[in-house]
């Protein structure tokens, strides 16, 4: 009598992969939480997300409501961060501004990560003239400061939050592409890649299944570090009047308005500037923590 294998006793391969991925993510999160600087960055980003999600509950006033009789009032119990030149509550505008900042971070990250990863892996895998052409385009983008190139794109597309996001995304992918290419050049000669070729796997399948997963840790770390620059660039465009337009409570635009009253009403610049500093610093700290967590060699080198 032939024994019937009991498949229910072992998890399916896909489920096992999901479990191992969840365990790996848990290990990374535990490492970040155990590092004081990375833990501080996580707390700041979580606070940003909470502010954006629950802005109507956290804000103490309508961020767009004007009260000329209460203009330029210093911080008090009635207005935690004071009021601006038309009597709007700065604290409430700062809270609602978290939504704009988080939107910029999320959209730029979703656009930049895949583009940089795709360009870098494809260029590194195929090499030759294809690699040369893609890398020369990348070098052209890298030869200009990010803010200057973003200004050029916004000038061509027109001022506005949506165009600012597109401009920032168009100027932020080259460093990720360079990193992904360098990783791919190392990986394309690996034994498991050669074995996949011998089995008849297509180039697209090899890149997607074999190379991209190995590039993800480095790309994720670089993307996290790049988000700090994204925040500063978005604030710079808002400051110059090319990003989010009034009366949207974007932090860079708030600083641009507040600089006119900076000597007498310091809070108009101090609080939005402090928010930009904290969030950009948080992403830098998380990026450093991810680099240590995802690259054991770096962690051993520091010890």
UniProtKB/TrEMBL annotation:
One MF term in the entry's GO annotations: dipeptide transmembrane transporter activity
InterPro entries this protein is in? BP-dependent_transpt_permease (IPR050366), MetI-like (IPR000515), MetI-like_sf (IPR035906), OppC_N (IPR025966)
Q: Which PROSITE patterns match?
A: ABC_TM1
Q: What Pfam families does the entry give?
A: BPD_transp_1, OppC_N
What's a single GO BP term from this record? protein transport
Membrane spanning residue stretches: 39-59, 100-128, 140-161, 223-244, 265-286
Q: Where is the ABC transmembrane type-1 domain?
A: 98-287
Where does it primarily localize? membrane
> Gene3D superfamilies, from UniProt?
MetI-like
Give membrane topology per the record. Multi-pass membrane protein
| Keywords per UniProt | Cell membrane, Membrane, Peptide transport, Protein transport, Transmembrane, Transmembrane helix, Transport
Where in or outside the cell it occurs: the entry states: Cell membrane
Show the GO cellular component annotation of the record.
plasma membrane
The family classification in the record reads: Belongs to the binding-protein-dependent transport system permease family.
Q: What is this protein's record name?
A: ABC transporter permease
Q: Which species does this protein come from?
A: Amaricoccus solimangrovi
